Predict the structure.
Amino acid sequence: MRISWLFAAASLALPSLHAQTDWPTWGHDPSNQRHSPLNQINPGNVAKLAPAWSYRMQKEGQAFRLSQSTPLVVNGVMYLSWPWNHVAALEPETGKVLWEYTARGDYRGFEASMRGVAYWPGDKLTPPQILFGTEEGDLYSLNAKTGKLNPGFGNEGIVNLKTPEVMNGFMGLHHGITSAPAIYKNLVFTGSHIVDQTGVKGPAGDVRAWDLRTGKLVWTFHTVPRPGEVGNDSWPGDTWKNVSGANVWSFFTLDARRGILYMPLGSVNNDFYGIDRPGPNLFANSIVAVDAETGKLKWYFQAIHHEIWDYDMPIPPILFDVVKDGKRIPAVGTMTKNTLLFILDRVTGKPIYDVEERPVPAGDIPGEWYSPTQPFPVKPPPLVRLSFKYPDDIAKITPEHEAACRAIFEKEEGGRNRGPYTPPSAKGTLQLPWVLGGATWSGGTFDPKLGYYIINTTDSGDFSMIVQHNADPSIPRLTPQDVNLLGPPETPRLFNHPFRSPNQPIVNGWPCWQPPWGRLTAVNVNTGDIAWQVPFGTMEGVPAGMKTGGVNLGGGPTTTASGLIFIGAAVDSMFRALDTKTGQELWSAKTEEAIHGNPITYMGKDGKQYIAVTAGSTLVTYKLP
């Protein structure tokens, strides 16, 4: 059930290429390598980098949340988005505003990320367009030159994504977009952001393709298979009906040469219990490859069976070639938040390095269905801590910190962690990583010269507890808004919401397990081995000289042909450049706010290579003097 191969003829049509000095898509190219061929800034001169210009995204009197956006630079124009529903075109050498646009709506959810926009070069009938979605469930098409709505697209430039076909009768529930759509030929692909904690039923996470000229629906892929579709037998009886989730809430990846769209699908609802959905639950927590023009299934790989940890699969897949046993194999690297990196043949879905189904712990929640095994790659090893043994793994940063951590774990019976995939329990179990741990939507980068897949991670944990949401009103787990989303109290359900519970074993800001707490790792995809791994980021107050690493989720790395990695991401608000071969830090700069976006690099019309990244409410750029 885990892997299926459906073959189709490969398309050899090549996409039109933007200038190699630009940054035309979220991942630089459709394969999401986040690698630039620019080399003006190199290990020899990177220490001279200096601020160039900045752009303040937050306006006077305007609500704001920290930006997770990655800008684009195409044909001498930078396109930037930020919460809530704002888009601007800037001069990439100066930050001069060319146009600004604010979409309709007043969504104030904790997401509203506006992580990016997409650029379409247009055709003979339609000028170049900027595409983006909103949390209100709208898909916009703007004239890239003027910022005006494209009247031929949908209803005067807007397509309503909240159609009856995906809302499943739950028109009052949330269905929006947090990340940039993907574009192939004359199609734009949309995923969705769906509120996780509304019970198993709700809006569908279906992936859809729309005509870029008209906004008309071209195809729909049912991410929870219906009768007669591959994977429906993983849903007993009618349990598949109106299931919510299994959505792409981060970024698609494209093999433009072969015309294959790769969809990283997240969990189905509810994220932490599956009493109403026994079985493996395809295509949740799977990478699914489809024909980009038709949406027809080619293959799938499920990384987690019957997911109850909210690990999703938000890390954007990266395409690269693997040289193994003298053969060059087109590959895709994919993982969930728990950082098990699966390296697959991107044409067939077959693992390039062996994958084993290993036994995992069962839980004790009445009526829950627990998968007896989960897939583990033989290579590479996990990139973060997946287990905790008390007292061996207690942090020993200072005697006071160690004593406080021991007190926590003695109260929690040692943490009740039984290794990878320890399920939530009524008493609470230490989940490693927890829902914000390991890796996330910002993903990794790939250096094609070295064959290194590089990604930043956080070693994180949380006491994950399952409770009936109306059983004890004193449990500080839900806001009133959350309870309203869950439905009437006379239909109790088991629930876990670690975002609002002070359950992380942390003392004075330091985790209670041995460091490193944050890492940057390079995996040699040609061998499956870790090429290097270094502690990444810093934590305030740790003893001098102790390299613990720190929390560094919410931003990712970018590489260049000169052998550099650029990355913010760390909670210490530092922007860094490192050597790609070794992970050695070569340069850093303090930013006023933490960096939650991914950096880009481009060549300006002035002949200068720029580095740009969103740091909180400000876009900052750097160049050589």
Q: What stands out?
A: The two ends are 57 Å apart (CA to CA). The CA atoms of residues 278 and 369 lie 5 Å apart.
